[in-house]
Amino acid sequence: MKRFEGRAALITGGANGIGFACARRLADEGATVVIGDIDRDAAADAASAINDLGTPSASRERVAHAVECDVTDRGSVEHAVAETVQLCESLDVLVSNVGVASTVSFADTDDAEWERQIDPTLSGSMRVIRAALPHLLDAPGGGAVVATSSVNGLIACGGVAYSAAKAGVINAMKNLAAEYGANATGAVGADSGWVRFNAVAPGTTATRVWTERGAEGERDMREFGALTAMGRAGQPDEIAAAVAFLASQDASWITGVTLPVDGGLSVGPLARIIALDGS
Ligand SMILES: NC(=O)c1ccc[n+]([C@@H]2O[C@H](COP(=O)([O-])OP(=O)(O)OC[C@H]3O[C@@H](n4cnc5c(N)ncnc54)[C@H](O)[C@@H]3O)[C@@H](O)[C@H]2O)c1
Where is the signal peptide (predicted)? Predict the structure, then answer.
């Protein structure tokens, strides 16, 4: 069964890594996907790659579009949402996925550096949700937002600004879930007029944020992965599977939650030691 047949999904930061895996997964399951990314060429390449995959089963082919979208720019975000609705005639699912981390120490984080991380990661996510909200409220069967937070939003993993932004995303999902959980008329069970808001909190996931730093990045990725209960880093497809679940009707009574997808990193600091000791 295709969980997203007839649904339209916008994925911000969808040209690479986790966002691309989400776009591919939702398209596999029948959604018309729109890849919104600051890198217009990469978004176009990503959409072509999905379209070129052809027909996943007996039903229609995968359908992916690309739009330019810089989540730090309100005009760009509003334009991307309008383009999405024009292309798809609706917007049912939003995957708000952009996040910008940094290795700059807290002491060296001046106001400009703080904003460089907070703006795309927290404010950008809110900009996209605000622009998409009127369309999500019109979605038959309810709209769905899944935000990509991080284990950094749950526990101390380093990176104060990025982590504070990711924690902000988690709390925003709870408040938005409360505010938009039911139709504003009070008609409980109405077919539209409400949106579910959830988040995933990935742990170390094998994307270019690690691999583009060469051997050192690969080593860091392995070392962080080794700290998890499961002893390895995750793959973008493993995050996408959780995002697809939360965006789907399988999660029809789930709103305001954050699902860690982290191989057990966030269960506790002793997870790996317990696993190796077998105790
Ligand atoms: N990779 C990990 O280990 C990891 C772990 C936890 C959380 N996350 C989060 O997952 C999300 C995706 O990360 P990733 O590892 O796939 O990164 P990635 O770099 O592979 O992909 C990020 C995409 O976002 C786009 N982008 C960057 N700034 C943008 C902007 N202002 N507007 C629109 N698009 C923009 C980039 O062009 C890129 O296509 C981020 O929110 C990140 O914080 C990643």
Answer: none
Pocket test of ligand 1: the residue of 11, 40, 79, 97 to mutate, having most ligand atoms within 8 Å of its CB, is 97
List 19, 95, 147, 162, catalytic entry: 162
Residue 162 is among the residues annotated as catalytic for this protein = yes
Closest residue by Cα to residue 217 from 233, 230, 202, 231: 233
Number of structural domains the chain divides into: 1
Instruction: Report yes or no on 15 lying in a domain.
Output: yes
Domain annotation covers residue 217: no
Q: 259 is in which domain, residue-wise?
A: 8-206+235-263
149 touches ligand 1 (CB under 6 Å): no
The per-residue pLDDT for range 15-51, each reduced to its tens digit, is: 999 999 999 999 999 999 999 999 999 999 999 999 9
Residues 141-169 have pLDDT tens digits of 999 999 999 999 999 999 999 999 999 99
Residue 204 Cβ inside 6 Å of ligand 1? The answer reads: yes
Distance CA 239, CA 147 (A): 11
| CATH number reported for the structural domain that contains residue 145 in this entry | 3.40.50.720
* Ligand 1 close to Cβ of residue 229 (< 6 A): no
- Residue ID of nearest Cα to ligand 1 atom 32: 70
Q: Whose CA is nearest to atom 40 of ligand 1?
A: 99
- Spatial distance between the Cα atoms of 58 and 52, rounded to a whole number of angstroms: 16
Distance between CA atoms of 255 and 149, rounded to whole angstroms? 15
